Amino acid sequence: MKQRRRIYEGKAKILYEGPEPGTLIQFFKDDATAFNAKKHDVIEGKGVLNNRISEHIFTRLGALGIPTHFIKRLNMREQLIREVEIIPIEVVVRNVAAGSIAKRLGLEEGTVLPRSIIEFYYKNDELDDPMVSEEHITAFGWANPQEIDDMMAMSIRINDFLSGMFIGIGIQLVDFKIEFGRLFENDTMRVVLADEISPDSCRLWDVNSQEKLDKDRFRRDLGGLVEAYTEVARRLGILNEND
Ligand code: C5P
């Protein structure tokens, strides 16, 4: 691989400097982590699948008019993206109780929520990404009220679109996490969808069997993660039958 300057290395991805100013290369690793990296493994093939699945989702969202950092996929593991200033907030959208909300509020996993719920978490590994409210976000200056509005409006549209897209292929979108960034262009700034959307960052349940097709297979030691992600990709129509 050509020597490139590494800008940032996260748990599942690396960012390298891109070919043009204002661009970066996002590399998808095979590393799987959970519980804030207390659990770690390397699952061969995961990065390739997430690259393809995230490309597909970002392309579909872009076509819908949701601004994103995505430019194009370069190869099996890399995407060309626009450089953004990441807003240090993880936005979680939930349709069905699972994971931390089930635990926190004593809800049975699988309970359909009265309506979709948006939550904010402060991106900070040392603090284990604590849940925060709009009050905290604006008081500490992590994002301003307009940016919060933009993130919420896009999150609702993304949830509506992805829920429909997945239901069409027999998958229930239980919840997902997204991140946003500030894109500076011609003296203007706008908030765009960044990072990735993949089975690493979503809960995806098969509608008929209720089988988990997401990273809970790793978190809960269920095995079969690559097979599950491959099934998601296959149903999205981005793999050939014999891939
Ligand atoms: O653990 P929790 O139930 O709060 O996760 C909600 C959703 O956000 C899940 O789909 C999970 O995969 C995703 N998530 C993530 N990265 C985090 C925390 C949660 O992708 N750091």
UniProtKB/TrEMBL annotation:
Reaction(s) catalysed (UniProt annotation): 5-amino-1-(5-phospho-D-ribosyl)imidazole-4-carboxylate + L-aspartate + ATP = (2S)-2-[5-amino-1-(5-phospho-beta-D-ribosyl)imidazole-4-carboxamido]succinate + ADP + phosphate + 2 H(+)
Keyword annotations from UniProtKB, A to Z: ATP-binding, Ligase, Nucleotide-binding, Purine biosynthesis
Source organism superkingdom: Bacteria
Pfam families according to UniProt: SAICAR_synt
Keyword Zinc in annotation: no
Protein name per the record: Phosphoribosylaminoimidazole-succinocarboxamide synthase
Organism: Ahrensia kielensis
Family of the protein in this entry: Belongs to the SAICAR synthetase family.
Pathway assignment: Purine metabolism; IMP biosynthesis via de novo pathway; 5-amino-1-(5-phospho-D-ribosyl)imidazole-4-carboxamide from 5-amino-1-(5-phospho-D-ribosyl)imidazole-4-carboxylate: step 1/2
An MF annotation (GO) of this entry: phosphoribosylaminoimidazolesuccinocarboxamide synthase activity
All copies of domain SAICAR synthetase/ADE2 N-terminal, residue ranges: 7-235
First-level EC class: ligase
CDD domains linked to this entry: SAICAR_synt_PurC (cd01415)
InterPro entries the UniProt entry points to: SAICAR_synt/ADE2_N (IPR028923), SAICAR_synt_PurC (IPR033934), SAICAR_synth (IPR001636), SAICAR_synthetase (IPR050089), SAICAR_synthetase_CS (IPR018236)
EC id: 6.3.2.6
